[in-house]
Amino acid sequence: MNNKSNKIEEKLELLNSELENFRNDVNIWAINMETTLKKVAFAVDDQDNKIIKFVEETDKRNRNDTNIAFQKFSENQNFNINKYLFNNENKQNFKFSKLENDLNLFKENPNISLIYHDDLYKEVENFIFKKFSDEKLNTKHIDDIFCEEYQIPKNKTRIINGKKIDTTLPTYIRHHFHHINEFDNKPPSKMEIKESIILLSKIKI
User: Fold this and answer.
1) Is the pTM of this model over 0.70?
2) Counting CB atoms within 10 angstroms of each CB, which of 114, 150, 164, 181 has the fewest?
3) Domain of life, per the record (predicted)?
């Protein structure tokens, strides 16, 4: 009987020893895992901080470049987006002055060109609204007027919900600027932006 008891006690001690070793192994694993997770978290935080810093620096640099470009633009005495030269013979006509000479400011920066193009499009659009005295006009009507009144061809195709719509280059670029997340439509090239700006500048109302 004593022998059996002794063997049982020995087995229990062995099991307790193995259990204790297992607990120690688990604790060591947990400590190592916690250390690893902390290292990963620190690495992620560090990477996030680097990304945030890069984005902030890029944004600051782009804003600075944009401000410099627009400052040069506004200082140019030969052209100002908010001023028009009126034809002395007919005050209803207007033209933008020497636009082609000023495109050099924008040709290397398509983002600035798009901003400028959108401002110019709005100016022309407002004049068309006034000319036709119809508040019900929308962008589609404006595009039709570009084509019918000013002979700007509808040589671009825009895809909306799988449907193909022919449009003029100025309106295509305008839509790209306002709906940049429409991946079915290719962004305009620098030359297309320049061409469209010239087309808009030649419109007389």
Assistant:
1) no
2) 181
3) Bacteria
Residues contacting residue 117 through CB under 8 Å, at least 6 positions apart = 170, 173, 174, 177, 193, 196, 197, 200
Under a CB-based contact definition with an 8 Å cutoff, are residues 111 and 132 in contact? no
Cα separation, 74 vs 116, in Å, equals 12
User: Residue 47 and residue 1: Cα distance in Å, rounded?
Assistant: 68
pLDDT in tens, the chain (205 residues): 556 566 666 766 777 677 777 777 777 777 777 777 777 777 777 777 777 777 777 777 766 666 666 555 555 433 444 343 333 333 444 344 445 444 555 555 556 677 778 888 888 888 888 887 766 677 778 889 999 988 999 999 988 888 899 999 999 999 888 887 777 788 888 889 888 988 888 886 5
How far, CA to CA in Å, does 31 sit from each of 15, 37, 78, 128, 177?
Answer: 24, 10, 72, 72, 53
Residue 176: CB partners within 8 Å, gap ≥ 6?
Answer: 114, 182, 185, 187, 188
